[in-house]
Design goal:
39% of the residues lie in helices and 16% in strands. The chain contains 12 helices and 11 strands. A 6-stranded mixed beta sheet has the order 2-1-3-4-5-6, sandwiched between helices. It has a 5-stranded mixed beta sheet with strand order 7-8-11-10-9, with helices on one face. α9 packs parallel to α12. Belongs to the trans-sulfuration enzymes family.
């Protein structure tokens, strides 16, 4: 949020107008409320439709900034950065992209026409869930100076330990991102035919609504580590999370350990009660997928009795999957 605020609040003034996603990071609504209090006109629109372009056109040439989040969190919708950036620049507006889920290896917003790329370093960049960090990149020295001035003014500056932890993690960034992205696609494919699952989303699936756009702007087959899907209801989702053995029930994503959560527990996101956001870690893909499928069976009441080998019915004390 320090990085997000540094961009928005260094660029927007009373009387300006901006377009922000209606399905973006959970704390954006609070920041939008703050911007409105400062006299900034904000229009919101969902990521995966042409609604963002329509909102930009409705605000007209007075628009100062277009904010994109692609893929969106937690819905995993994707928008065409270059197309929207061209439309915004034609109206004199700057463009910022939240690139947290894609990572700089999977997507390069500045090369696609954005003026700012913003991300949470807490997620995949550092990958170990042990640092709070955000970052902003831009090409224009003037814009960079404005962001730095805001950062200095409000004190949103990481300490030496946080900077060291981030630097430590960069050495394994490509290894982690590639492994997690490949396993995420494999997991999504394994979930496609599960009858209890609806709304399965991952940009790497050829059947995903966002796949065409994602394949055109996300690099090297890296479509992110997050898979989302919906189970029938809240209770079913919680049984699934409880049955997982290799996966932590936690709210972050991008770490080396797989995590999953029932996103609706926080409120604020327009998702069903049974919506699951699953972040794929660096575990063995076969082991992870086996654990997820077993947990789905357990949540549906179709698994073998506890302590019984599913194949033979013999008593077993080892962990399955």
């Amino acid at each position: 949020m320090g990085a997000i605020s540094a961009v928005l609040l260094s660029q927007l003034r009373q009387g300006d107008a901006a377009v922000l996603p209606s399905d973006g990071y959970q704390l954006l609504p609070a920041l939008i409320e703050r911007l409105a209090g400062y006299g900034v006109t904000v229009r919101t629109a969902p990521t995966g439709e042409d609604a963002q372009l329509a909102a930009l056109e409705a605000l007209g040439d007075g628009t100062k900034l277009l904010w994109l989040e692609t893929p969106s969190n937690p819905g995993l919708d994707v928008c065409d950065i270059r197309r929207l950036a061209d439309a915004a620049h034609a109206r004199g507006a700057l463009v910022a992209v939240d690139n947290t889920l894609a990572t700089p290896l999977g997507q390069r917003p500045l090369e696609l026409g954005a003026d700012f790329a913003v991300a949470s370093g807490t997620k995949a960049l550092t990958g170990h869930g042990d640092v709070l960090l955000g970052y902003v990149t831009c090409r224009d020295p003037r814009l960079a100076a404005e962001v730095r001035a805001w950062r200095k003014t409000v004190g949103a500056i990481p300490g030496p330990m946080e900077a060291w932890l981030a630097h430590r993690s960069l050495a394994t960034l490509q290894l982690r991102v590639d492994r997690q992205a490949a396993t995420a696609v494999a997991l999504a494919e394994a979930l496609r035919d599960r009858p209890e699952i609806t709304g399965l989303r991952h940009p790497g699936l050829p059947t995903d609504p966002s796949h065409r756009v994602a394949a055109g702007q996300m690099r090297g087959g890296r479509f992110g580590c997050v898979v989302s899907f919906t189970l029938p209801d809240k209770e079913h989702a919680e049984r699934f999370l409880t049955a997982l053995r290799l996966v932590d029930d936690a709210t972050s994503f991008g770490g080396v350990r797989s995590t999953a959560e029932r996103r609706g527990r926080w409120g604020g996101d327009a998702v069903p009660e049974g919506f699951i956001r699953f972040s794929v870690g660096a575990e063995d893909a076969e082991d992870l997928i086996s654990d997820v499928l077993r947990a789905l069976d357990a949540a549906s009441g179709t698994d073998a009795p506890t302590g019984t080998d599913p194949a033979s019915g013999a008593a077993s004390t080892g962990a399955g999957g």
